[in-house]
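Chain X:
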Amino acid sequence: MNQAILLEPEAAYALWAQSYPAHAHNPVMQAEERVMLAMLPGDLRGQAVLDAGCGSGRYLLHARRRGAARLTGVDLSAAMLARAEAELSGVRTQAELALSIGSVASLPVADGTADVTVCGLVLGHVPDLAGALAELSRATRPGGTVLCSDFHPIGHALGWLRDFKVDGQRYAARHTPHLYSHWHRACAAAGLTIEDVREPMLDPGDIPPGARFDPAALAVPVALVFRLQRRR
């Protein structure tokens, strides 16, 4: 297998967007999504939901299915936002929708915009975890919920990459591992209470027949998932 070319996230997703679907499309994402959806309120009627690092829009689609009235998506990649725009084209007739280019480290939204903020598999692309969590807290109303997930740091230690192929060439997006202790300190500084934390593992049934993967992936957690509440 050819060696992956390491790219900064914005450049990586500019390439990846052309084939990036708006659903969990690999076993790690499926494991992560099961836990995120279990933590996401089942009834979002009348609620404002912000997806910070929305990508192709998968969690915005889930939020709309649960009745969210106002949806805001922010992503650093114009190409990924274009995918989200296409995937969410029917949502505008059902809910208020706004998509904007921006960084999780500096969200282009007002204070307290969201009742529920989602940030799925994004913060590993941000070296400054504390700054990003402070922004997620700012964008969420006091008493509101922040749901965050990221790839488990054990995967980084085992040499796993956030990789993909375009025209036969492997690429990988730069990733910064964040330990639980980093999350704990950053949440405390941002005024976020950790209400729940999960470490999902792969479901062997999600692995396609004949897939090539590290067998260690079945013995270790593949994601960290947090449900947080803004205190102030």
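Chain Y:
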Amino acid sequence: MTRTVAEPRMGRARLIALLGPAFVASIAYVDPGNVAANLTAGARYGYLLVWVLVAANAMAVLVQYLSAKLGVVTGRSLPEVLGDRLPRPARLAYWVQAEIVAAATDLAEVIGGAIALYLLFGVPLVLGGIITGVVSLLVLAVQQTRGQRAFEGVVTTMLAVLTVGFCAGLFFSPPDPAGMLAGLVPRLAGADSVLLAASMLGATVMPHAIYLHSALARDHLHPALAGGDVRTATTAVPRVIRATRIDVVLALVLAGSVNIAMLVLAAANLPGRAGTDTIEGAHAAIAGTLGPVVGVLFAVGLLASGLASTSVGAYAGAEIMAGLLHIRVPLLTRRLVTLLPAIALLMTGISPTWLLVVSQVVLSFGIPFAMIPLVRLTRDRELLGEHRNAVTTQVLAWTVAGVIVALNVTLLYLTFAA
């Protein structure tokens, strides 16, 4: 009787121990670029675009699960699999576009951290960008010295902080339930809302999150599985895949809830307010409407978002280089090098919000290069064996990939045509 009771508990404990990678990857869904888009959507259109975030989150669950499954079953990341299959010229070209995407990601995160420090302490943007970079170095040092589990713990803690920071305002000014329900009905209101919806939905799945999640899932496996041909571990792999599904759903439901909270907070408190098309303006409006405490909590959430996102982005860039070029640069060295372009752009005096918009446009170019190979590879019988995508999953995956790619093309067209 004792054994019968203990075994399920042991099973649950092992399941819990496998959770974590998706919470790190989910940081990409609550980065400063998302903050700007969500606040703008709520301020301009109220609850109209809630459905966009719900749809985006559903798509993200599938995409991130496929990325994690690839890492679990093959013991390799998406960049590693592509690096093994592509000829050298193609590998180099693919790496160039992936690095451009990683640089755009880093730019957005550093800017977000710099804006948060300016809002909290009046720190000049350039100095704030440097401080953000230094703190991200310390976070990455945890991964280098204490291992991935400790790194996951730090990033997950930051995720908790930004969740509190971005959601705190709802306790002071609850949203309108009827408005939220109405916002679940898919509809738009003119060309500008189309552009904003395309930006929110098309840029939800970040390329670096797809690349990184497969590596995080690979490295989070039990030591007996990591780095080998895990297809032979017939009993362990299904258990890890089951844990991966739970991990992805929990993490992205949390990230999606934070995004929706930001939109409805803006919808309830910022409609028609002038100057809310920038993060600084939205923060000032939130603080003026809900009080300085909520304003401070929001800025703290933005800071946690920037710090966590830039650390995760640097980690993703290192995995991309290692997988495609078979060159592993020390993570801290890479962090220093990739920080320089972001600081240089901050020094030009260009509007930080405009730089955030440009970074999101650049990220749009990288979506097809990550999505299409992922969907093709996770259906490959030779690569994933019995764990390859079922027909229904594959149809859904191609549909999601098609929608995301089409929306990013629409976003690019509308951006340049405006």
